[in-house]
């Protein structure tokens, strides 16, 4: 998005948004709308604009309380998921190849995992979510390991000590993207322990995204699918 | 809990939860439900499920405002304590041996202390809470020291400078678990000073739990009771 | 140790040290000499004093470069281990019961693990060190699990993401003391990630010591052995 | 590596090291020797062992001052690079496919970039190092962009504000692994700003490694090459 | 503002405020009212006072929910902008010379950018806002570069990794003031990464303001305009 | 306060509070009630208890929204100040000697300054509040310096960079207690900069209290008045 | 000290130092020389200058390795104490009144305690050092409490969890200055835990100095002695 | 500097360096050599290259112990200042206009102040250093204020609480660049308190550089001189 505003109207009556339509050509990923910090009216007009332009677009961090302020008609223009706080007007063409496994440590990691899952749905990429594989009960992971390894790329979503990254990283040869989550309380609050834990994983080649950044992990996976599989 | 969800239904219509029923055999402690971050409807269905299965289960971090959204019938299925934000459908069999003293520094530490106390009640372990033993008035601790020392295990709950850990740690030979609390303001906020203080206690052999983790201290105590006393 | 010095001689010509000989009666653990920050001459005179008094005493954090400044005779008075930087004049009577397993994640955790091991040797407690059980290669842990579980208490020593705590904590019912280590670089430096990871372990009842505090974990174990097994 | 040591010989006379020879089968990457914190004698015996076993092995974080203590014969067994502090006895078979671009922001990032480059050399992967592409002089990057984009995977190595990650991330569709470096002083010291900057990059799909972890980025690239190109 | 209150009336019935009317003479900038933490009644009486005194005054951090509590008459006394949370009773005389470019990385930086813009409006300084010039899409910046460079001073407003500072800093010879914003989540939260990134910018001579301090950047620009251009 | 609660009634039906009535004898200061984190019903019963016992007691951190829940009768028992969030049932006897100056940097520091002032009122100590002496307008301080220096003890209350501590510390020979405040935004948030600034003041002998701890500064002053002036 | 240097000789051939001789009149304390970061030659010339001027002056943070570079003659001009790293050319006149107790928690706090003690010696103030009163062995403190309470002012010096501040603060009515020390390892390193602990002490009226700032505590005590006792 | 290195010679035999000779045209400032982290041989060859090319070049962070390894001939090619750790082969043409005042709080800030001064000398800009103006002795600043205000731009260099920024910022209308220094110990260590203090200065329009970044402040000043005065 881009605009220039002169000092005569410095109260930000934001009139127009120019999208980076060229981004797909450059980086293989279309621009998305990050809703946090944007005003509801701006979001609503973007929904209408993309709907009428018949352009597939993804909205992330669209909180249920903001979505509730949309009109019924605006709501009908988008496919909304409250758990992941994502929405899209329509999805991109299905990719023929490339399957992504999204593996979470606990129930509380679901919102981040589904941000990744929904982003992949929007991008046309097949994926499976494996929930509740936390390593304090190893059987949860080991019984699903074969199914996980039948995917091309693995996204690990975990909070607290994020021990899942090292254990799963030691059991698979697949590319791994690890997303720390801001689950927990006390020293775990905000997800910095999980972030640190994933960055220092003993398993080789674990790459890490920002805390709660399920969207970013899906984008990283998309780079692989674009480069190697399609 | 464990489930697999395929990409066709990636909006997380969470249908089923598989508990780690085997955990008691492995680690001597049944799984509990950590309520923070879970949706109210999920919690309500878990309450009903465990009630009808006649399975004892502990809920932690069940905030009063969430509990208030339960139906009266659901409320009747559980024993709820707002101070500690805990609930259980029923308790496990009483342990014959093993008494735990829970010692707090100040009134503000009560919610954490009672999370430990209620977890022990659920686990069938006898315990006594000694409140307000902060060492800025040493007599508060010393007059209760004999009573405290008649227990097998001591859980220390303190915020701010958590000086109680060093003083009590120097006056008893019992196993000690120290729980820092997020009491206070300014530099004390969030409990990091209390955590650091307990980890650097001059008294030898003070073991520390995460901030506000009364549940964890009760579990640590349970490991001792299972291993040595029953 | 204790002394009073008047202002006339305020240059700290430290003449005498009074030990807390009564500590064993109070807390079941004798006082030890923490060498870091003490001057070499003070340490040397303590070695001689305890040798001639035939009193068993433990020295911790006695760096090799300090030990190298001792006379040969002083060296002959103590049993020194450079890896763990510990020494003792003689050991306490063997405990009849109680066996401690010390389990490390990697080779770099050895110095901390052996501080725990040597402290237990000094205290007369039997123990086994299981090195290199890091969970990035799960078989390293699982092949030793039965042997580990034949001990009464488990000390876990790990740096980096310290994922071992959650995995082993989910596979054993024994009392657990976790010691984070300051192994690694970047975000792992100083051991704060490992500390945070252990405090937020998903396995219930993991109690944590200060970073690199193998001595403290041995003391915590000793409290259990004193209370329940001897 | 793995060993068990009984309490009789608790002074850590480390006799033997068992490698995780199975790792390549599991994760597609052989184990490497992380030299930091290991004693020189241990490293020297490992060099000899791997040389005589004719097993290719990589040593990382082998500081020049440690290497200087090796005998000439031991030195002759390895290919040593002081800038990257890496060594190997021999390299693995050349991979037919897969080229990695390693792009740095400044001269001071070279040691980390070459840790990645040397790891790739050891793993048999072709690669090119593009140095000094920092975006304060954009032409440095833009004149090399076409050459960079002819590689399959891009590793970005940058310290300070690590702005290169966002700029290059917006100019390429290739998979990206970003390595923050501990270059600089003041608030830049230790690399935490660079780490935070890369994790919050505006370019989509930038995956991040621990500070100074060139080895990890090479391993992450290897997972892609193993999975998609060979 | 300044007052003395004796202990008899220590309940702070704040009666009167003395402004630093002399500040303009000393530092070339009039005092402004920082509304955060001030009570609504105090703010309302200040609005009336300055209106009736016909004194131009700027209010910063005047949240919409506080403004909503003003009477319609009070509202009519000020020019209010909700996006930037600023208001003024009237503006100072237009400066003949000096034009400031305010360049933002993304839409979410607008509130800070407009705090700077509105402060400049109040101070009588011409300026242009260039929004959405984030360097993940370099063309956004490069197509506006000539227009930006026709200004005398550049204020850069960016959150997350704030890479815009280094790129723009390398493309212009103008004085630069960089304002980090508290945009984003996870490690970006609170703006500390953006602050660190701007302070360590590779481009020479980038001067930095506190997080979200658009007002301060405008004041810094005003010092230049006062000193060199008027 | 002190109580013992047995495990049968572990839901914390807090029946009774025992005050440390002996504290005045030991430390010269009566106990106060810190309201934050205490339940409203507990506070209301304490108000009634102290009122009927005719015991002077101070309540700190009694937020207006909690006070609003008191009955009119309960409100009539106490003297309440919303700005400082303090209340007392009655005050202690006036001290004959000792005058305290409370000097603030800005209006936003008032709530903390008045917590100190009100505590001194309760303790019977004379005091004067000098507001808005921030050193960005030096005349604000210098014109009041003589009046300030006619007091026996000086409490400095300042947020942000807290530069007032060094400047005033260099202009007076009086005992100084500095209280940092959590005023401001960005890097100033929470008051850690002000705390650090006061602890590193160049003026010799500046002693510092916790952030926002006006109560503590008044207690520190009281120790001097008790020891030297009464 | 003060000087102006023109740009022609910008290599800092520091020719002259002007002391703040007026400081004693203003704040009751003469200026001291903080040696850290000053070059040895500067320190040596200051020693000679103050010796020949027969002016009493205190040097702090004068490390033994710097002192070793002085000539024997220069050494003869000062009274040097390596433990506290302090020196003075001569002392100020003895104060008739005012006795300060300096109480430490452990042997490792001695260097800071003696920095306070030596500063008091220089200032002519009587004092006693009570070492090793750490509260993990309460008898160490209680047996000396009466002697401590016979002093007018108490300086508490403690590292690690600094629990001594709360315990002693609850047992005395004297003015208290607490100095955290940078003793210990792991989370204790650098003294931040001790600082936080002292700032959040439960005992009322504990005022805190910067980490390791024994000099500052002595200055704070001097302000009291000047104001109230002489 | 820029080079491309192919994987055949990945041991970094750095052969050549390409300078950003175009930088002066773009940003008005020539590139400088930041010596920290560069190898001595590289620095020595740069010295020779720039000497023989008769190109003025500035070296920063050239530590005396590195300079000592230069040959006498190489030393003769540069003008070296050990205090500021800077060197240049020759200086740029004198600017006709623009005078910069560099004001420090204490002697320990000299190395940073002279890094700024020497950079200005190299850039051909007139400047004056005013040392030791710390506000704990206000007269030090006020007696020099008129002289300071006769300069066009002011650079403030201060560590610890950096109170000088607010005081001087309130006494001058000139453009201000504030450089925090890493002077001090305890909480002051590394300069983060000074950095935070300057960023939150109450004086309006204080712009801040990275800790110890005297070079950056000189560059910022140069941008003004280039834009407005020459």
Task: Estimate the strand proportion of chain A.
Answer: 15-25%
Shape of chain A: globular
Largest sheet of chain A: 5 strands, parallel
Any idea what the radius of gyration of chain A is?
19 Å
Q: Provide a count of the helices of chain A.
A: 10
- Given as residue ranges, the uncertain stretches of chain A (5+ residues, pLDDT < 50) are 1-16
Describe this structure in words.
Eight copies of one chain form a homooctamer. Chain A has 230 residues and is an alpha/beta fold. Helices cover 35% and strands 18% of the residues of chain A. Chain A contains ten helices and ten strands. The first copy, chain A, has helices spanning 23-27, 40-52, 64-67, 72-77, 110-123, 139-142, 145-149, 164-169, 192-199, 214-229, and strands at 3-6, 33-34, 58-60, 79-81, 86-88, 99-104, 126-131, 153-158, 176-180, 206-208. Chain A has a five-stranded parallel sheet. The longest helix of chain A is centred in the last third of the chain and has 16 residues, at 214-229. The radius of gyration of chain A is 19 Å and the shape is globular. The two termini of chain A are 29 Å apart. Chains in contact: A-B, A-C, A-D, A-E, B-C, B-F, B-G, C-D, C-G, D-E, D-H, E-F, E-H, F-G, F-H, G-H. At the F-H interface, helix 8 and helix 9 of F face helix 8 and helix 9 of H.
Quick recap:
The structure is a homooctamer of 230-residue chains. Chain A contains ten helices and ten strands. Chain A is α/β, with parallel strands linked by helices and 230 residues long.
